[in-house]
């Protein structure tokens, strides 16, 4: 009996610790997922020369680049104005590059002299921005590179342990000296983390129990840094594009302009493109981290600031369909996205050249349909589709939104994919694979979604001691890293019932030429896999053949070089 009582006490004790020092992932992510859009700020001494942060270091000259901080004096920097711009732009959190790959620290640190306090400016940017954000009730977040291209100890076989402790000290400073930090945005720069991911993750959780951490601590390739959510991460981070729809938490990071750091003569993207980028993230059940780089004086370029405020005006007018919603129930289509909250379904029409929109059937009844201003619009619902008729004189030049009041809460409905644009009988069907490099947009379903931006990729081997690779000076294209991944694999689709197929189309995402050197297309007959076609170079491949009737089809990758992606695996009936 005593043992039982002791066991219960221990269980209760563990539960209390969890309740006090942590929270379920869904609770930790809620404020962030409700926020939808944040301001990404890439900034540092590099703004003096208008080149890309960190990545231009080698080209510009390492000695010259590393000396830029000696004349970095952003006298017009005003943290309150930065926060005010973010709020006016409809952005609900701020992520600042506290330290990028170049190793320069925008905060006061005891770990290195290469920091903002040793510039002519001599003020702690992170401290001032954090204070201004806290005063405005704006979540403040740090971008932090665990690597340092300037530090000779980084990935040095003899001294990397010393460097690792230095990095942990920097994380400790950033998460101790500036009040509540809501999110830690780690970056991956092509080599395994020089610090054991578990150490960084555990330290961050210890210091800030409610903090959100992205997925770039663990990867060995850029694909993983975007799509793989491992043990030490909360969400995926597609970069430079909006992938589609994901149940896994995700956030696209991209630029309002055309470079991460400030650039001479750069131009902001149009209001329509900027808002559509946000709406596609919202409709895809993700977030947008939109980057604007301040200039060397500490000021956001006026044309970028004006564009950001325009976005803010548009999102404020349409805030009920953006913030505090979930993506879906319809997953993004060519001309539309949707979001919902409770029994309200918001359909965002992204073109003003069409007033009729036909959607797939939905398993809930439409009670009424109107624009956001209350103007009624007509609709016709059948068991085959749902047709909406927008009003020509009420079209918004950016996006026109219909509010559908449904007869039930929509959270219980499964996501509804758009009508196929390819006509493939494999579109949206159940997909499986031998392995995958990520859970989102690199998973098996990515090859059957009519979206070339998503692609299935072979995943890691299971018998590798991955921890031994952290801290090593091995590039993601090195033999050591390539050996981490399965040398072959298969991708399978179940059509749900036997269908006649007479044509196959395959699409490969690749660096230049085809990375796939040997592959087979198979179908299942009497429980056995039968070869239908094969090749030694994929690229954009298609072939017709004598029709076969089968329910399951498979693509087998026997040999490949470096990295590839199968962005589409399409099956068609025989050509008449």
Task: Give the secondary structure arrangement, pairings included.
Elements: H1 2-21, H2 25-35, E1 37-41, H3 57-60, H4 62-67, H5 79-88, E2 94-99, H6 125-135, E3 140-145, H7 160-174, E4 183-187, H8 197-207, E5 212-213, H9 222-227, E6 251-255, H10 271-283, E7 287-291, H11 302-317, E8 326-327, E9 336-341, E10 344-349, E11 356-360, E12 366-371, E13 378-381, E14 385-389, E15 400-406, E16 430-433, H12 479-482, E17 489-509, E18 516-525, E19 528-535, E20 540-560, E21 565-572
Parallel strand pairs: 1-2, 1-7, 2-3, 3-4, 4-5, 6-7
Antiparallel strand pairs: 8-9, 9-10, 10-15, 11-14, 12-15, 13-14, 16-17, 17-20, 17-21, 18-19, 18-20
Helix pairs in contact: 5-6, 5-11
Brief write-up:
With about 575 residues, the protein is of the alpha/beta class. The protein is built from twelve helices and 21 strands.
Count of DSSP E strands?
21
Residues in β-strands, percent: 25-35%
Number of helical regions:
12
CATH superfamily of the largest domain: Glycosidases
Largest sheet composition: 7 strands, parallel
* Gap between N and C termini: 77 Å
Helix- and strand-based class? alpha/beta
Q: pLDDT under 50 segments (min length 5)? A: 1-21
Q: What is the mean predicted local confidence, pLDDT?
A: 94
CATH topology name of the largest domain: TIM Barrel
CATH class of the largest domain: Alpha Beta
Widest β-sheet, arrangement of strands? 5-4-3-2-1-7-6
Query: What level of helicity do the residues show?
Result: 10-25%
Anisotropy-based shape: globular
Radius of gyration over alpha carbons? 26 Å
CATH architecture of the largest domain: Alpha-Beta Barrel
Total individual domains: 3
């Amino acid at each position: 009996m005593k043992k039982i009582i002791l066991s219960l006490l221990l269980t209760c004790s563990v539960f209390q610790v969890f309740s006090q020092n942590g929270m379920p992932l869904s609770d930790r992510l809620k404020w962030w997922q409700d926020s939808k859009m944040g301001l990404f700020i890439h900034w540092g001494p590099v703004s003096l020369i208008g080149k890309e942060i960190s990545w231009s270091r080698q080209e510009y000259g390492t000695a010259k680049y590393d000396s830029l901080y000696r004349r970095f004096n952003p006298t017009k920097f005003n943290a309150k104005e930065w926060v005010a711009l973010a709020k006016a732009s409809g952005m609900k959190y701020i992520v600042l590059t506290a330290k990028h790959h170049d190793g320069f620290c925008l905060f006061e640190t005891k770990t290195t002299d290469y920091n903002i306090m040793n510039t002519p400016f001599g003020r702690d940017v992170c401290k001032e921005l954090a204070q201004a954000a806290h005063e405005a009730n704006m979540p403040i977040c740090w971008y932090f590179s665990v690597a340092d291209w300037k530090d000779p100890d980084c990935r040095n076989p003899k001294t990397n342990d010393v460097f690792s402790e230095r990095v942990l000290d920097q994380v400790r400073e950033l998460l101790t000296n500036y009040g509540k930090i809501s999110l830690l945005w780690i970056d991956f720069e092509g080599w395994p983390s020089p610090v054991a991911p578990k150490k960084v993750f555990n330290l961050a959780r210890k210091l800030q129990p409610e903090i959100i951490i992205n997925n770039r601590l663990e990867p060995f390739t850029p694909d993983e840094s975007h799509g793989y959510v491992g043990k030490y991460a909360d969400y995926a981070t597609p970069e430079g594009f909006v992938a589609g729809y994901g149940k896994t938490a995700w956030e696209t990071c991209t630029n309002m302009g055309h470079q991460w750091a400030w650039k001479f003569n750069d131009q902001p993207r149009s209001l329509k493109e900027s808002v559509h980028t946000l709406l596609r993230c919202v409709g895809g059940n993700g977030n947008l981290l939109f980057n604007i780089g301040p200039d060397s004086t500490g000021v956001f370029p006026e044309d970028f600031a004006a564009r950001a405020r325009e976005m803010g005006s548009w999102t404020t007018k349409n805030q009920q369909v953006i913030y505090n919603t979930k993506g879906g129930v319809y997953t993004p289509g060519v001309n539309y996205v949707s979001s919902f909250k409770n029994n309200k379904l918001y359909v965002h029409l992204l073109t003003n050249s069409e007033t009729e929109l036909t959607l797939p059937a939905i398993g809930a009844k439409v009670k009424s349909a109107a624009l956001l201003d209350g103007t009624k619009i007509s609709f016709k619902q059948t068991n085959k589709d749902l047709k909406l008729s927008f009003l020509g004189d009420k079209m918004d030049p950016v996006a026109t939104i219909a509010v559908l009041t449904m007869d039930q809460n929509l959270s219980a409905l499964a996501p509804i994919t758009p009508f196929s644009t390819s006509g493939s009988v494999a579109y949206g069907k159940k997909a499986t694979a031998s392995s995958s490099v990520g859970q989102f947009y690199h998973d098996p379903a990515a090859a059957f979604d009519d979206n070339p931006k998503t692609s299935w990729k072979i995943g890691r081997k299971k018998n590798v001691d991955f921890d031994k690779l952290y801290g090593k000076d091995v590039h993601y294209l090195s033999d050591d890293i390539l050996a981490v991944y399965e040398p072959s694999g298969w991708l399978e689709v179940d059509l749900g019932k036997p269908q006649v197929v007479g044509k196959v189309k395959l699409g490969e995402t690749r660096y230049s030429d085809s990375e796939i050197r040997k592959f087979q297309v198979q179908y299942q007959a009497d429980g056995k896999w039968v070869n239908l076609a094969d090749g030694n170079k994929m690229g954009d491949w298609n072939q017709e053949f004598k029709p076969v009737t089968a329910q399951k089809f498979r693509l087998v990758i026997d040999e490949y070089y470096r990295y590839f992606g199968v962005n589409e695996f399409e099956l068609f009936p025989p050509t008449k």
